[in-house]
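User: Could you go from structure to sequence for me? I need the amino acid at each position, not a summary. Structure tokens:
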């Protein structure tokens, strides 16, 4: 169990990341190759990823370089997920390259003590092998993470919408109470399912919450408690469709495809909306709005999540693609 201790100052400084973190997604997606837990949620990605890695001749790199450095264990090196990655993949990889030699050796030593590290790991402190690692991370991201960006971003934005509503309705503590089944808020401590027992005292630094598409099961935090605190926590997953059915394209009006009212409901869902808000936006009853949302959900265009006493509806990547295809612009 991980216990994160908040002060009033920490509650005021807690925030949600503005975009998916590419380096965290690289690292936790590597964990998906090391376990079958949650495989159903990533089945489509997993099979395509293996095929793409093989076609790009990256299978050996994955097996001999990346997986040994990012074990699915109680710890993997913190320098692989620097805060600079919030500015994008390039900035994050530059920070990995710039990590001081002493820190690299210390963190790899911790890996060796906790889960075992390859014999070549100490060489990672030298610029040559570190550049090879960064090139491998970039190639891996381009091959198996970037092609899935639309799904990652859609789920991330849906979570951001739910988080914003939680804060507006109930404050930061309302947000902390609704982060998923693996997290439990009991003032002033956030309890998280974790592979080892530890306490993290924020001491006024606040906490950056980073929803992650590829994180599964327990959340992840830095091992080094002197770093600015972050908590990577998993997004919920539901089966979804990955492509537009049939030949639906920009030349087909949305109302023709779905009907006028249902098309209006889909547009109203775009920024995230509860059933009551859909009813008010489209001028139908709450029960009718619920039925339309259910039909759109069944078609793979909308995903619905329980939010406090309401149900929050957001677009799936398929729904977003359909809206874009039907827009006059």
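Assistant: Here is the amino acid at each position, in order:
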């Amino acid at each position: 169990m991980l216990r994160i201790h908040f002060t009033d100052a920490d509650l005021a400084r807690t925030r949600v990341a503005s975009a998916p973190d590419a380096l965290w997604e690289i690292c936790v997606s590597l964990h998906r190759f090391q376990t079958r837990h949650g495989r159903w949620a990533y089945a489509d990605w997993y099979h395509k990823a293996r095929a793409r890695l093989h076609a790009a001749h990256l299978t050996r790199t994955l097996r001999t370089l990346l997986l040994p450095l990012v074990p699915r264990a109680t710890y993997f090196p913190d320098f692989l997920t620097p805060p600079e990655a919030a500015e994008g993949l390039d900035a994050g990889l530059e920070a990995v390259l710039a990590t001081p030699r002493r820190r690299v050796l210390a963190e790899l030593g911790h890996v060796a003590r906790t889960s075992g590290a390859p014999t070549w790991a100490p060489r990672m402190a030298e610029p040559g092998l570190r550049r090879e690692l960064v090139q491998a991370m970039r190639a891996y991201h381009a091959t198996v993470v970037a092609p899935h960006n639309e799904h990652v971003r859609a789920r991330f934005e849906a979570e951001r919408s739910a988080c914003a509503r939680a804060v507006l309705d109930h404050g930061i503590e309302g947000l902390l109470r609704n982060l998923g089944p693996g997290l439990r808020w009991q003032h002033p401590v956030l309890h998280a399912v974790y592979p080892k027992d530890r306490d993290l005292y924020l001491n006024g630094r606040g906490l950056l919450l980073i929803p992650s598409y590829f994180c599964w099961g327990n959340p992840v935090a830095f091992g080094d408690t002197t770093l600015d605190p972050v908590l990577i926590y998993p997004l919920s997953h539901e089966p979804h469709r990955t492509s537009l059915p049939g030949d639906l394209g920009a030349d087909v009006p949305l109302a023709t495809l779905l009907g006028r009212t249902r098309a209006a409901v889909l547009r109203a869902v775009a920024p995230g909306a509860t059933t009551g808000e859909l009813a008010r936006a489209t001028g139908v009853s709450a029960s009718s709005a619920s039925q339309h949302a259910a039909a759109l959900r069944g078609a793979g265009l909308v995903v619905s999540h329980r939010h406090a006493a309401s149900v929050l509806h957001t677009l799936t990547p398929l729904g977003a693609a359909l809206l874009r295809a039907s827009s006059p612009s």
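One structural detail worth keeping in mind: The longest strand covers residues 302-307.
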